[in-house]
Design brief:
By secondary structure, the chain is an alpha/beta fold. It is built from eight helices and ten strands. Helices cover 41% and strands 20% of the residues. The strands form two sheets. Strands 3-2-1-4-5 form a five-stranded mixed β-sheet. Strands 8-7-6-9-10 form a five-stranded mixed β-sheet. The longest helix is centred in the C-terminal third of the chain and has 22 residues.
Length: 265
């Protein structure tokens, strides 16, 4: 069988998605990127192939995306993060007009036109306070692994504000709240609210409009999604938990299939 591959080499995680000729997802792979980007890309591809029961020769076309996309020497072509995310989110939610992508080291907001083309986009400032890394650092300081962020914030009763505009200042606020006896759940909830406030400001800069689709690993936490809904006053789309980190790779795979079809025509 023929499959089409998308590999998203992100700053924190590298993901791969395989789709078949009908456009259905048949295989996925994910691992931490590390410093050997091509090895990470190769490993997630092999994981996805094993899940699909496919061989390397079955890959008809491969598109790479993400910040490390140029390091994937076995790609057929590369695509920008924005293009891949647009195709990935629209393949899941066809009416998407505004996309928010919160990754480990970056935050991106973009507005799409009716045809799914990127019309406006903005990136966060070069500061971890606007990314998922801030939540991870806060959790680690409080003594919790990232897997426990979701359950932890469910116990928040009196969230504390975290207003620092950079990760260093925000971390000092966290330390101050701890010393004042604030509960870890309340501190973690405040960190989420701070991240969401930055997210909404970024979305406003692209002249956001519904439908909204939220992607990135941070969106695995239901509380994060709920607070975002409250801030926007609108319903939001979120891919199923197992796909929320894979939309860039999915978009790259969709582009691979389209490119292969055009070449065969």
């Amino acid at each position: 069988m023929s499959v089409y591959a998308g590999i998203d080499v992100g700053s924190t995680y590298t993901k791969a998605v395989l789709i078949d000729e009908a456009g259905e997802i048949v295989g996925r792979g994910i691992r931490q990127t590390g410093f050997k980007l091509e090895r990470a890309a190769e490993e997630v591809l092999q994981t996805a192939l094993a899940e699909a029961g496919a061989a390397r020769d079955d890959v008809a076309y491969l598109v790479s995306t993400g910040y490390g996309r140029t390091q994937v020497s076995f790609r057929d072509v590369q695509a920008t993060d924005l293009t891949a995310q647009a195709w990935g989110t629209r393949s899941l939610f066809p009416q998407t007009r505004t996309v928010l992508d919160i990754g480990g080291q970056t935050m991106k907001a973009m507005r799409l036109d009716e045809g799914g083309r990127v019309r406006s986009f903005r990136l966060n400032d070069k500061c971890a306070a606007g990314t998922g890394a801030f939540l991870e650092k806060t959790a680690r300081y409080l003594g919790y692994p990232i897997e426990e962020i979701g359950p932890l914030v469910e116990f928040a009763k009196d969230p504390v504000p975290i207003s620092g505009v950079c990760a260093v200042f925000a971390e000092s606020e966290v330390i101050n709240h701890v010393s004042n006896g604030a509960q870890p759940a309340d501190i973690m909830y405040g960190a989420m609210e701070s991240l969401i406030e930055r997210s909404v400001r970024l979305m406003k800069r692209v002249q956001m409009e519904p439908e909204f689709t939220l992607v990135g690993g941070i969106m695995r936490f239901p509380t994060m999604v709920r607070i975002m809904k409250e801030q926007l006053g609108e319903q939001v789309n979120v891919p199923p938990e197992e796909l929320v980190q894979f939309t860039g790779a999915l978009g790259a795979a969709v582009l691979a299939r389209r490119r292969a079809e055009k070449l065969a025509a």
